Amino acid sequence: MILYQLERTWGIPNLSHFCCKTETYLRMAGIEYTIKATLPLFAPKGKVPYIEDGDLKLADSRFIVQHLKAKYKDLDEGLTPAESALSLAMQRLLEEHLFWATMYSRWQYTDANWQTNKKAIFSVLPPVIRDVAATYYRNKIQRQIMGHGTGRHRAEEIFELGMQDLDALSACLGDKNYFLGDKPTSLDASAFGFLINIFGCPIESPLKEHGLSKENLRNYVERIKLQYYSDLQAA
Fold it and tell me: Where are the alpha helices (DSSP H) in the chain?
């Protein structure tokens, strides 16, 4: 099993929410893998993560997790239909809504955030093409943010919507160790991947400030990181 994703940076598993989600599922499920760093322009479907598992090459974290469940270990085995429905709904909240507020904060909100993001992603490229590639992808992602609808709002409106998502996640987690009880599920892999990409990154925004005010979410992220990424702690 080879997991292709962005280079590690910022002291977190990955600056890509979806790469972090995928690797966290692998670790929670105890599936052996190796990592190869790459950029989206070299990936199937033009995005990371993707995996190679024998002769199979598979892109998109949703399909990757589906494959891992079927072939290796299903972290959601034993969930009730109601719990499975809640898991799906909360993952959609994370991946189809909150995600766009975080992308706005990185690629559009302030120039300082953009420069931090740009350095983390594109510094691996040769200087002669670094700025060209960064500008191309920034324009592309800003068009995606606009096309999704998020980019049509004012900054304070975007972050207000994102804060509502964080409030919902905090209420759903409550005082539990994991979102659906006493053991990790695919929802936890997704939640950790997204929350650490708000809390653990040098990208500043009202969304980050609000998230860090949620003690249960903050403690949850630290607990998952310590439990499943002790090697990063040591590094």
Answer: 17-29, 61-71, 81-93, 99-104, 111-122, 127-148, 155-173, 186-199, 206-212, 215-228, 230-234
Residue 120: per-residue pLDDT? 95
Q: Which domain holds residue 136?
A: 2-234
211: CATH: 1.20.1050.10
Structure tokens at 108: 């559009």
| pLDDT bucket at 34, cuts 50 / 70 / 90 | very high
Report how far residue 90's alpha carbon sits from residue 169's, in angstroms, rounded to the nearest whole number.
8
Q: Into how many domains does the chain fold?
A: 1
Burial class (CB in 10 A: 0-12, 13-18, 19+), 118: buried
Answer for the pair 98, 165: CB distance below 8 angstroms, yes or no: yes
66: left (phi over 0), alpha (psi -120 to 50) or beta: alpha
Question: pLDDT value at position 41?
Answer: 76
Q: Which residue has the tokens 């005082």?
A: 175
Question: Phi and psi dihedrals of 200, rounded to 5?
Answer: -100, 10
pTM, entire model: 0.95
Spatial separation of the C-alpha atoms in residues 195 and 17, rounded to whole Å: 8
What pLDDT is attached to residue 235?
A: 46
76-113: pLDDT as tens digits: 999 999 999 999 999 999 999 999 999 999 999 999 99
Could you tell me if 214 and 38 are in contact, meaning their C-beta atoms sit under 8 angstroms apart? no
